[in-house]
Every structure is written in structure tokens, then in C-alpha cells.
Design a protein that fits this description.
This protein has eight helices and eleven strands. With 250 residues, it is of the alpha/beta class. It has one domain: 3-Layer(aba) Sandwich (Carbamate kinase), CATH 3.40.1160.10.
């Protein structure tokens, strides 16, 4: 693996991507061009020696909660959504490997022909070997979001930070797309997220991060080099921790 530069703040990160992020300019499915854009960012930070794991959602293909609202059984809807994340993971794997990085897709649902089963020790070993690990199928259980899966995997693999990629540059007190006066937070505590119901991650994911003191950085995925800047400890997006204090220097 590439040697780790002294300028890095985080040496093992978990990147949470929503399924919608993979839409790019499309209305449905996966935009190969945007997958290449993500792969380029992952390649850049990986080249500095950062170990990268990714959890991807499936909302660009199917959303179990939305299907349940129209009458579908919630468990069945969530299981379909989990399969959608597998498709997204395979698309990301193709883009990342084309960018020159060995990649492993690890699934919480057994499907040996296309993905490895998720085993914590094996995932950690892949990271130590310099491979990008893409975790798909959520937690393998209905009623849990991919945000919760991301928090769980981040804790399990010993990530130093959970990177929540969004289409805005941090956490706001209102929707910045509809409220021009919305204020962006530089720092927050987990308690702030739960108390003010700031819908960045679901409450289960926030609680899991809080219990394990897993810092979260919410940032704009569409800005090139943001993942690298976060890994270096630069003030990107909104930093969420136990105290809400500013992230330290490398």
C-alpha cells in the first residue's frame, strides 16, 4: 500500500454515498460519468495512503420506505432496496477499478457469485492490503437504513471518521434550496442533531456514532478534492462530534 503521508488527519475512513448521488444528471439509475467522478476522488485520497471503505444506498433505484407508504409490506420493500444497493456497489466497483484501485464488494446478504459475504475481519484485512471495500445490502435486515449501516460498519472496521456525502456543503438549520436565509453549521454535537431533528442521518445512526464517539463530517460530494481535504483535517462541511469542538490538526 502507498505510504501514509504525515499531513493526514484520518488514515481510515468510511464514505457514505446515497443512491441518489449516483444519479448524476439522470432521473433514474446510475450515471457512469458521475461514478467516474467519485472514483477519481477515491483514487486521489487512496493514493495518499488513506484506507477507504464505502457504504452505498439504493434510493436511485428503489426505496423501501416509499414503497411501504403505497401499501407494500415494509420488510419486502426494504429487501428490494437492499438488492438495489448491490447494483450500485457493482457499478462503483467497476468505476473504481477502472481508476486503478483493487476493490472488493462485500454484501450483508449472501450472493457468492457477485460479492463476498461481509465479514468484519476480512473487510479490515482488505483495507490493510490497500483495497477499497464497498459494503452493500445495508445491515442485511429490514427496518434499518443505509445511514445506520454506514455507522455500524464505520465502528466495526475501526474507521476514524464517517464521511456523509451530500449535495450541499454541510448541515443547515433549514433546507438551503428552499430557504435562502438558512444558516450553515461549522460544528455540531450529536445531541444537537437529535434535539433539533436535523435530518442528516437517522436517529439510530446518530446514536450509534455518539455511543462510540465516531466523528461525522457532512460535506458536498460535488466539489472535487473534498474527500482529500477532509482526510487532511481541513475545515470542510460540518463536523459533528461529542463536544462539537473543531477538528484537530494532523
Amino acid at each position: 500500500m502507498t505510504s501514509v503521508g504525515p499531513q493526514l488527519r484520518y488514515r481510515r475512513v468510511l464514505l457514505k454515498l446515497s443512491g441518489e448521488a449516483l444519479l448524476g444528471s439522470r432521473q433514474y439509475g446510475v450515471d457512469p460519468e458521475f461514478c467516474r467522478f467519485i472514483a477519481h476522488q477515491v483514487a486521489e485520497v487512496h493514493g495518499l495512503g488513506v484506507e477507504v471503505a464505502i457504504v452505498v444506498g439504493g434510493g436511485n433505484i428503489f426505496r423501501g420506505l416509499a414503497a411501504a407508504a403505497t401499501g407494500m409490506d415494509r420488510a419486502a420493500g426494504d429487501q428490494i432496496g437492499m438488492l438495489a444497493t448491490v447494483m450500485n456497489g457493482l457499478a462503483l466497483q467497476d468505476a473504481i477499478e477502472r481508476a486503478g484501485m483493487p476493490t472488493r464488494v462485500m454484501s450483508a446478504i449472501t450472493m457468492n457469485e457477485i460479492a463476498e459475504p461481509y465479514i468484519r475481519r476480512r473487510a479490515v484485512r482488505h483495507l490493510e492490503k490497500g483495497r477499497v471495500v464497498i459494503c452493500v445490502a445495508g445491515t442485511g435486515n429490514p427496518y434499518f437504513t443505509t445511514d445506520t449501516a454506514a455507522a455500524l460498519r464505520a465502528v466495526e472496521i475501526g474507521a476514524q471518521v464517517l464521511l456523509k456525502a451530500t449535495k450541499v456543503d454541510g448541515v443547515y438549520d433549514a433546507d438551503p434550496e428552499t430557504e435562502p436565509t438558512a444558516r450553515r453549521y461549522d460544528h455540531l454535537t450529536y445531541a444537537d442533531l437529535l434535539r433539533d431533528r436535523l435530518r442528516v442521518l437517522d436517529a439510530t445512526a446518530v446514536s450509534l456514532c455518539m455511543e462510540n464517539e465516531m466523528p461525522i463530517v457532512v460535506f458536498d460530494l460535488n466539489t472535487p478534492d473534498n474527500i482529500t481535504r477532509v482526510a487532511k483535517g481541513e475545515p470542510v462541511g460540518t463536523f459533528i462530534s461529542v463536544s462539537g469542538e473543531e477538528r484537530g490538526s494532523p
